[in-house]
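Lab notebook, bench 4. We co-purified these components, and the gel suggests they stay together. Before we commit to crystallization screens, I want a quick structural picture of the whole thing.
Request: model the full complex, all chains together.
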Amino acid sequence: MLRGTLHQGDTDAPAATENVLAALAGSAFFWLDLDDVEPDDMVKELLQTHFGFHPLAVRTAEQFSQRPRLDEYDSFAYLVARGADPDNSGTAEVHCFWTDRYVVTVHKGDCEALAQVRERLRRHPARQVAPPQIVVVYLVMGALVDSFFPYLSDFDDRIDALEDDILKRPTDAQLGEIFDMKRTLIDVRKLVAPQRDVMATINAGVADVPGMTTEASHYFRDLYDHLIRLSDLVDSYRDLLTNVMDTHLSTVSNRLNVVMKQLTIIATIFLPLSFLTGFFGQNFAYMVRVWLSPTWSFFVLGIGLELVTVVALVILFHKRGWLGGPTV
Amino acid sequence: MLRGTLHQGDTDAPAATENVLAALAGSAFFWLDLDDVEPDDMVKELLQTHFGFHPLAVRTAEQFSQRPRLDEYDSFAYLVARGADPDNSGTAEVHCFWTDRYVVTVHKGDCEALAQVRERLRRHPARQVAPPQIVVVYLVMGALVDSFFPYLSDFDDRIDALEDDILKRPTDAQLGEIFDMKRTLIDVRKLVAPQRDVMATINAGVADVPGMTTEASHYFRDLYDHLIRLSDLVDSYRDLLTNVMDTHLSTVSNRLNVVMKQLTIIATIFLPLSFLTGFFGQNFAYMVRVWLSPTWSFFVLGIGLELVTVVALVILFHKRGWLGGPTV
Amino acid sequence: MLRGTLHQGDTDAPAATENVLAALAGSAFFWLDLDDVEPDDMVKELLQTHFGFHPLAVRTAEQFSQRPRLDEYDSFAYLVARGADPDNSGTAEVHCFWTDRYVVTVHKGDCEALAQVRERLRRHPARQVAPPQIVVVYLVMGALVDSFFPYLSDFDDRIDALEDDILKRPTDAQLGEIFDMKRTLIDVRKLVAPQRDVMATINAGVADVPGMTTEASHYFRDLYDHLIRLSDLVDSYRDLLTNVMDTHLSTVSNRLNVVMKQLTIIATIFLPLSFLTGFFGQNFAYMVRVWLSPTWSFFVLGIGLELVTVVALVILFHKRGWLGGPTV
Amino acid sequence: MLRGTLHQGDTDAPAATENVLAALAGSAFFWLDLDDVEPDDMVKELLQTHFGFHPLAVRTAEQFSQRPRLDEYDSFAYLVARGADPDNSGTAEVHCFWTDRYVVTVHKGDCEALAQVRERLRRHPARQVAPPQIVVVYLVMGALVDSFFPYLSDFDDRIDALEDDILKRPTDAQLGEIFDMKRTLIDVRKLVAPQRDVMATINAGVADVPGMTTEASHYFRDLYDHLIRLSDLVDSYRDLLTNVMDTHLSTVSNRLNVVMKQLTIIATIFLPLSFLTGFFGQNFAYMVRVWLSPTWSFFVLGIGLELVTVVALVILFHKRGWLGGPTV
Amino acid sequence: MLRGTLHQGDTDAPAATENVLAALAGSAFFWLDLDDVEPDDMVKELLQTHFGFHPLAVRTAEQFSQRPRLDEYDSFAYLVARGADPDNSGTAEVHCFWTDRYVVTVHKGDCEALAQVRERLRRHPARQVAPPQIVVVYLVMGALVDSFFPYLSDFDDRIDALEDDILKRPTDAQLGEIFDMKRTLIDVRKLVAPQRDVMATINAGVADVPGMTTEASHYFRDLYDHLIRLSDLVDSYRDLLTNVMDTHLSTVSNRLNVVMKQLTIIATIFLPLSFLTGFFGQNFAYMVRVWLSPTWSFFVLGIGLELVTVVALVILFHKRGWLGGPTV
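Here is the predicted assembly.
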């Protein structure tokens, strides 16, 4: 069964085959949005036989998880647009056939962005100035592109929080989080960069798309501007994350230094002291008899010598600035 | 002896010299696939004398392990295409001479991709719309290009598993695995990037290949799209591997910190305690006689002093947050 | 209420609606500077209804924090220019509509740069040679661009000071400072690079802006030169900061080495000595009776053996060059 | 005295001045190869006065260690080609003047590559199809370019061996070797990249060289293909070396971790044990009299307590997985 | 007062105002070199009023420390050229106005490069073939460009020496030196890269400069070649310095490993030995009476047990390859 929505003259109707064929037979502009969620060949049949789209394009339109791209055919343009959809499967994907007289979009399952478009389409000022297929494509693609912004919006704060956390106390968990964020940015970049290039191609007039007018080009330039801002964002976040990673390593090394200084201070104080106590714990008859038996020798050798050692070492550490530093 | 297959009018025949010459003398399209596994000059002789290909192209066609490329000659195009072939020698390589009337491919040993092509050729929809030499080249190159996808498909999971492993317990073996994966990606990149550039050249119309039509260009664009997805994949895996490498170093440093903290805690507790026991193990007559002989002194100096020291150090460590942390 | 300044014929007047409409009705050049700080629709109304600017441009002009860019429309050019404004919100932003006959700029709140422009406009030599709209745009954009220089001017010294500090004593605080400086540079780069590209587009003649003459192009080239110097500055500071970060890590590692050498020296000297004193502290009857009772044995075994050990170790350390090195 | 070889009509003669002038006066193609090893002005005189080459080109031709490049003059092209020559001075360098009627090459000292060219020139198939000056330039440049391949051929194995070595036992010597290999690659890259660009310029038809025909362009494309393979090789080796360097650092850190764990295990076992022996070595009268005199106390306190401590610590280490790991 | 030199017809005269005006009134080529060291407006007055240069160019010519660039005006070209001048202020800077009939250069203070140019101008072979203004510009810019070579010439040796030093003994001072060299390279790059781009623009014919002929282009190509060699040099030195920095870190880590191994060896040998001596130093009555009183027990327990321990540990270390390695 065909699932989807047929939008014509400001009204939405379910996309039953007979409606679609009637619209196709007429001469008014329409937008057909198909949901290709069921594994039957209805969509393929409709697109290939009745709409007469090229088999290569139709076959591609049925495969999801594609790289965004624009293919020009004789009578239509085929566009793959991607967006973020954190509530559902993570990413949204719309395949768009676009001719001089109608626009056909194919998606899979729920697609929040397309619902928004139908809402906005009725009252968007672009309707007065630009051809209707451009308005539909602009709104669909705009909704998908803008869906990345909320997705990335908390990165700024997360990176700052991560940097602060690391300077306070670096942990392995932070490394995992940096890795996850980098992976997300790489994934977003793979979706954003080709869409930006598609828009650049259209704006430069290299690709020739149906309904293109000077007026229409203002809208594609607007999309391009959003995409280039997204790609700037992704690049700067990646740059900052690399820096955060370096900060992690340097902070850990710094802390190791502090720990090792403390160990060295402890060892440098107690190893000599223990040597002294060990020395006077020996059983040499002469030492026991001559050196250790007078009362004064306990206070001079047993306590005084150790105090002198401690004081000398503390002065030495103080001179080197090892005392009073950070304590991890 | 000539080894190979002559494909003409949907039937495959062994590529005996007389068959080939008959096909060459006729006017119907044919595809000759030669297996240049034996070190005789049959292939060279055939290509140069009977087909009349340029000596430079023929000489190149006999050397394998080449960089993918497209050379245009007056009457034919010479294409080197590469794929993955993990079951056999690791990579597949097909040299393709391609004219207005026939296609000659040269490979060495078994080539899984070409067998698939012969199978698919009979029932591929492209036959209806595109010139036959384009269909053959498209299917051959498509089979080679797509052979990289299964080869790379487990990288995603391997990289995630590696990252998790490293965060659990970093080892030297992981470094070796990262190195091997990076080397594989560099090798794949060296094969994919030039094929992508060849396709870009054809699509931009810079290279002029036999049988090129608007219709045909859709097929080359499809190949280009696959290649650019491959090259995106390779780039993002390399990026992630660099991150995994950094994670390894940072995790190791982090763990070193934990180990050193433990050593420092142990040393900071036991070195002072050992000093105290050493102190009261000295043989100073005065100390033994006056300090150590009363019973209370054992409980106060011998045990109490040590308990106080331990409690004081534990409180100190607790304040610094050294206790209760991770234990490597 | 409309807030802003109407500059016409060297005099400034408050931008009351009636003044603006009068200027618009006349034929003399004017520059209208609007302050869009209040959330009413006066500015939008004025720009869209009376000036007749494209709705897309007007809608964009009301959103601040935009990426610098130049959009060409049929009858006007729309330019987003950004500058630094450390005293106020951090960055300055001016949206500029620019036609053959007038220039309209929109900003939000106080904007130091625009005040300067009004001052300089009266006596700038460019007035004699270039069209008035070019002079206004040149001065506005010039003031914004040059506002980055004082902002970056202390980076040079700060980086040098940081490097010296780190070589003296590396701390975590320096890592935080490096991160902050990198973030600032990334932010400045995001504002400077697109403005540089806008100027390059204008200079290359790709963008066609109102009032462009050969004479005018000298002024845009001047702006381009300032922007490319800024972007060179940012790049070299980023490069140096990366180096400073590496220096930090290496210095810390170096210092760790020094600390560990000292710990090793201490342990290597005192562990053997403590073993010797422990050895002669044992209660073996034979040792106490035969070895430890003669007077000479104390001086030979108790003192001599330890001195020999110390001397031997000091000689060993000296040979390895461990003594006399840096002391952190 | 003039040193060199005059090649004309398949025969080689010493390049005496009179021979050269005779060849120059005739109309047949010749190739003059000059050895500019002696510091007289014969070569300069000949090139400038008799051949009439531009003074700038002649002056340049006498300075060796140049960056590869192609300069077009009115009547000739001037090409600097570089190769590897590990047996002699390390690099080979040929300066090539190339007109419609003859080719003059200038080198210094022995040049293995040029000797090969004279050998191959007599029987190369290109002679039948391409203009003679193209054949000479192709063979000379081809011999120089291909001389890099054996030079780089052992890099692959050396890098793998280095990686294995480092994973087995990282040393400082390996760092020195990585540095030397990187330096070599940088040097090769400085020679290969400009030659590749020169070939790209010729192939794109940007540079107009004497004797250029469609046929000739096949040969330059062949050179280009070799150069781009070289530059791919250099890039991938540099990439791998960077990875080897990172592996070195990570392996060293990993090993440090292992060493430190062992130190910590040793210290964690023996510091408490030594504390216990120290405790019962104290001279408190009460302890000696009451605790240490019963026979059972030796087995319980002296031996049992220590065994319990050791067993408890071994269990602890076992739980943390510290035992049975790698041992550096 | 006007300071400078007027060069006309092979003679140099002081640049008095009347001489300059006479030359300007005549029709012969002249080169006026002005020294703008004094803060009066003589130079500005002369250039703007009498020579009639554009105010923007004149204003720029009075500001030093500029980025190299070429601005084309209607009747002249304005070029900023930079060089190294280690003996004076560090960098040399010449601003050059250049028309069809004369060249005016402006510099500040002593400029060694310009003195050389006046010397070489009289006898340079370019005079016969190229327009005089090209010869002056070529010689001025050539002298400035070539001044970078001696400046960079010792970098090669310094980098090698640094690498060797670091492998021998890494110190903090080397980090400072690496930082200084990187900063120098960044500074040189900022001067060289734009000059290289200016030359590329002229050679590609994008910039149209006075007196440009095919002949003249050979000279600009020569400058371009020098600049691209400089920029290759800077890039390869930066690359090597990055490697030296990495070597430093890895060497330090390696050494730390060696130090820690030694500490671990010392601790692993002496902690068990000290435990044994501590054990037999305890005051358990039973142990003293039964175990320690026989003579054999001293040799077996007191000495034998310790020897066995040492021998066992040495064998263990030997097996792990810890002995005989490097000693920092």
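The first strand of chain D starts at residue 4 and ends at 8. Worth comparing against the SEC data before the next meeting. Chain D has a mean pLDDT of 89.
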